[in-house]
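Lay summary. Proteins are chains of building blocks that fold into shapes, and those shapes determine what they do. In this project we predict the shape from the chain. Here is one chain we studied, written as its sequence of building blocks.
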Amino acid sequence: MAEQLDRIPVVRVSGTGRNVGKTTLVTHLISWLSARGYRVSAVKRTHHSVPLDRAGSDTDQMAEAGANRVAFVGPDGVVERSGPAPLEEVVARLSADADVVVVEGNRDESLGVQLHLMGAPPAQVAMRAGDGKFERSVSADDLAEIGEFIEQALLVPLPT
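And here is the predicted shape, written in a compact code that computers can read:
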């Protein structure tokens, strides 16, 4: 599975705490990538028990933003209620229908690109790819620059 995961573009969004804008950034990224023609899957990762999906929830917002598949991952399993699963397994499952997988709430993995929000909204986003070093920091409102960073680091730009 490790070789397969090397081919799956993954964008991980983490933050310094709660209410720093992770879900907002994730939904904006999903919209931006979807508008450019990419098929996006999304994962919400948490240490809380898996709730039932409800209107206005983070996973509902991800679906409304255009993600064609959404998973909520917690200690009790995923939304499919298939039991606990490592992030790599969920990403591999969701990637079948996606060009990129966006993961919210996961800074402890080494998959793909990491966007780390720092400070209160509007936060700064530290961006890193590959070697683990943060390459630069931009405003969370600068979606074009964040999106272009993701494209350069992970994706083959789609023809327009």
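What the prediction tells us: The domain at 2-154 is CATH 3.40.50.300 (Rossmann fold).
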